[in-house]
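Following the same procedure, backbone shapes were mapped to integers, as reproduced here:
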Amino acid sequence: MQQTQQSAALPRGPVMAGVAGLRLTDEEKRRLSHPLVGGVILFRRNFQDIEQLKALTAEIRALRSPHLLIAVDHEGGRVQRFLDGFTRLPPMQVLGRMWEQDRPAALAQAENVGYVLAAELSACGVDLSFTPVLDLDWGRCAVIGNRSFHRDPAIVAELAEALQRGLARGGMSTCGKHFPGHGFVEGDSHHVMPEDGRSLAELEADDLVPFGRLAAAGMGSVMPAHVLYPAVDAQPAGFSRVWLQDVLRGRLGFDGVIFSDALDMEGAAGAGGFVQRADAALAAGCDMVLVCNDPRQTDLILANLRAPAQPDLARRLERMAGKAADWAGELAGPAFAAARAQVERLNMPADAMRGPDVGEAN
């Protein structure tokens, strides 16, 4: 009993791990109690229904104090992990198309989407959805596609700021992805290492604009792309001090959490084995690394990771924890009912859910 009490009071560490099923196994409880772990990422495999999800998040939260951050990819469209009992959210492109016809209505709907998304997850004990996608829709990258608001960076920024306001109403912070922009490349970084040959000046004129705007508006976290920009640095963005320290922290003044994209994606393989990938991401400036699907590799990282000093980690991660409130009461109230009705009335084109499935990664 004494050992359990001692292990329960731990600061959050720099590793976010996945779990296999609908409840925690004893092995997973042991793994998540490791001092290097700071969060858990959930997927569709972890969801049966709302009551089961609430039980799972309660189990996770009970393991540690402060509780492990619980995150999920729940953007809308084809990237919405939890479906049964949740409002079906549109792909963000629907809001971009609406903006072209009726800007005020699109901004109001973006805020409604963020509010409904966040409130429903908060009511189930989830702290964070990795959203919004700030990538531009260049019409080149199928894995981004209709996940993007628009091609115009000013429109993307404006809609994302409205979504961020809605997320805040629902007790949730934001995660802008995939820095500095994944929309220009044709390859899917889940399977290949894409390259974007543009200069920093070209990226600053377009793809970096939404990240700068959201950083100034209080964005809580960022996820870099597993994309190589050889005109800027020889390392992919998620392993690059140039991108994470000089550009994101320096030029854009961002002081939130930097989450790596999943280390089991092919776009991360160039950094070496899983321990080397985690070491390289943290050394470049990531605050937390994601190991989503392979518990053996998670254990290998936990046994061998040389985590750098991270004096700002606790402060940054605390800002990502969901806001405590009577979320069940919120969902039963008239404001939420009105917002949900608006989201449900969004016109979804027949192809709105099409495109390559974005599976057990980000």
User: Anything to note?
Assistant: DSSP finds 14 helices and ten strands in the chain. The first helix runs from residue 2 to 8. The radius of gyration is 19 Å. Residues 1-7 have pLDDT under 50 and may be disordered.
